[in-house]
Structures are given as structure tokens and as C-alpha cells.
TrEMBL record:
Domain Elongation factor P C-terminal residue range list: 169-227
InterPro entries (alphabetical): Elong-fact-P_C, NA-bd_OB-fold, Rib_uL2_dom2, Transl_elong_fac_P/YeiP, Transl_elong_P/YeiP_CS
Upper classification of the organism: Eukaryota, Discoba, Heterolobosea, Tetramitia, Eutetramitia
Biased composition (Acidic residues): 230-240, 248-269
Name this polypeptide is given: Predicted protein
Gene3D superfamilies attached to this UniProt entry: 2.30.30.30, Nucleic acid-binding proteins
Native source organism of the sequence: Naegleria gruberi (Amoeba)
Length: 269
């Protein structure tokens, strides 16, 4: 479905500048440089901050004081190492944004560099950092409960910089308390209980759920969604991380009084 589709932070590309380099093996690698105004970034975007350094934006603050230039502070996470990094830019400054191609893959193995994935189309192997997956995702993936996954490959370095997990999964309830009598068959029921799924994940389920039931649950917060239907069994959706965020959740604008700076200077005198 999404195999080999070029994405720019989960959106189709419109235009870009590209140079091609041909290696001895005949492999053509596209080097793409996309400069973007820091004021136009969104949460979930990935900044390339030097060789093999990919910073995904989690939060950013625009601040302006008097007649001074605006300052943009971004809180990021290093996609390959999981480290939190804070950076500041001048308003209007350009940054390099990472472009990537998506590949439909299956989990293959694990080595000292990370998780190894195999391209479902041509068998090419890609290694992704272990920090790109949560412990729950890793458990499900290594347990063989996924038919496929989607990864994002940086066009310039051929590194896996994104791992896109199914937004929801269907599993069998392996162990839970007996159904609670009098509980309405409603997902919004206030009466819940713990349930262990066949993939080893524990979630909260409504009181009417019984052992052996097939349930659909969200992989965003590991919450119960509904009893699974036949359509749910075959319907697997992938969503890029950036599309989970609403811009207004992560943007903070601070604008100080134009005279604030002058008043501060006068106090110092």
C-alpha cells in the first residue's frame, strides 16, 4: 500500500532539489537538500543536524522581545539514540529537513546495531535503532504478531530513521476475570478489569469481556477500542508519527512588550 512512496514527514512531496551519485556497484543514491524556514516547522518533523543525526521535533516555542529578532526554541529527541536535545534558532533561519522513502518490511532479527528488517519486495535488509520502538512494540514485533511493518529510509544515507507501527491491533484475551454481571455491553462502561492478551501485553477492558474474546486495541496508548470484527482482522493501518500531533498542542508563542527591553536597560542604569 505504502511501499516505496516518497514522503516528507508523512505528506507527499511537491518539489525538491536533487543530485545523484553513482557508486561502483551501480547503486544510484539521491542526495536531496531541503531547506525550510524554522518558522514553518511542525511537531513530528525531523531535522538533519549533521551526519547521521536526526532530531524529531516534540515541542517548539516562538519568543520575541521588543525589537529583537524572534527566537525559536525546539525540544527534540535524537531518533537514533533516544537522547533529548534542546536547540535554539533565529527566526527565519533555515534548517535541513529529512526526507525519507517508505518500505514495507518484516522483522528479521536483532544485532548490536539495532533491529534488522527485510524489504518485502526485494529482500533488502535495513537496520533501525532500537530507540525507535517502545518495549511493548518490541515485544509484539519479536513475538511474530505482525504481518508487516513500515519503515522510513533516509534517501541520502540509506539509514532507517522511522519505524511506523500499526495504529491498532487485534489480539485474543488470554487471561482475565469472569464477565461482571450487570455491566452494559458498551466500550465506555466505567467498570473495567485487567486482561492479558496472547501477545503478552496487558490492557484494561470492559467488565463484559471474557477469555477467548478477540479485541481491538490502540498502540498509541495501549487502550481497549472494541470487540474485534472480521473487518478489523484484515484492516491494518499505518500512520506516520507526525500526523498524530496537532500543531496547537506543541506551539507556544511568547511576545513581550516592545518597551520591555528599554525599561530593563533603564533599571540597570
Amino acid at each position: 500500500m505504502m511501499n516505496n512512496m516518497m514522503l516528507r514527514f508523512g505528506k507527499k512531496l511537491t518539489s525538491t532539489h536533487s543530485n545523484q551519485f553513482i557508486f561502483g556497484s551501480g547503486l544510484i543514491l539521491n542526495q536531496r537538500n531541503v531547506k525550510t524556514d524554522i518558522n514553518k516547522i511542525s511537531r513530528g518533523d525531523i531535522i538533519k543536524d549533521g551526519p547521521n543525526k536526526y532530531l524529531q521535533i516534540e515541542r517548539y516555542v516562538f519568543s520575541k522581545r521588543g525589537r529583537c529578532n524572534a527566537i525559536v526554541t525546539v525540544e527534540t529527541v535524537d531518533m537514533l539514540y533516544g537522547k533529548k536535545i534542546s536547540k535554539k534558532y533565529r527566526g527565519g533561519e533555515s534548517v535541513d529537513l529529512c526526507e525519507y522513502t517508505t518500505k514495507d518490511v518484516v522483522y528479521s532479527s536483532e544485532n548490536n546495531k539495532g533491529f534488522v528488517f527485510e524489504d518485502m519486495k526485494d529482500g533488502t535488509e535495513y537496520v533501525a535503532s532500537k530507540t525507535l520502538l517502545t518495549p511493548e512494540m518490541t515485544q509484539i514485533m519479536q513475538g511474530g504478531f505482525l504481518k508487516k511493518m513500515v519503515i522510513g529510509i533516509d534517501e541520502e544515507t540509506n539509514l532507517a530513521v522511522k519505524v511506523m507501527f500499526p495504529t491498532a491491533l487485534v489480539s485474543t484475551v488470554e487471561e482475565t476475570e469472569d464477565p461482571i454481571s450487570g455491566v452494559p455491553n458498551d466500550r465506555h462502561s466505567p467498570v473495567t478489569k485487567n486482561a492479558l492478551l496472547d501477545n503478552g501485553i496487558s490492557i484494561k477492558v470492559p467488565g463484559f469481556i471474557a477469555n477467548g474474546d478477540r479485541v481491538k486495541f490502540s498502540t498509541r496508548d495501549w487502550s481497549y477500542v472494541a470487540r474485534a470484527t472480521e473487518e478489523d482482522e484484515d484492516d491494518i493501518e499505518f500512520e506516520d508519527e507526525s500526523s498524530k500531533y496537532e500543531d496547537n498542542e506543541s506551539v507556544e508563542e511568547i511576545e513581550e512588550d516592545e518597551n520591555a527591553e528599554d525599561e530593563e536597560d533603564n533599571k540597570r542604569r
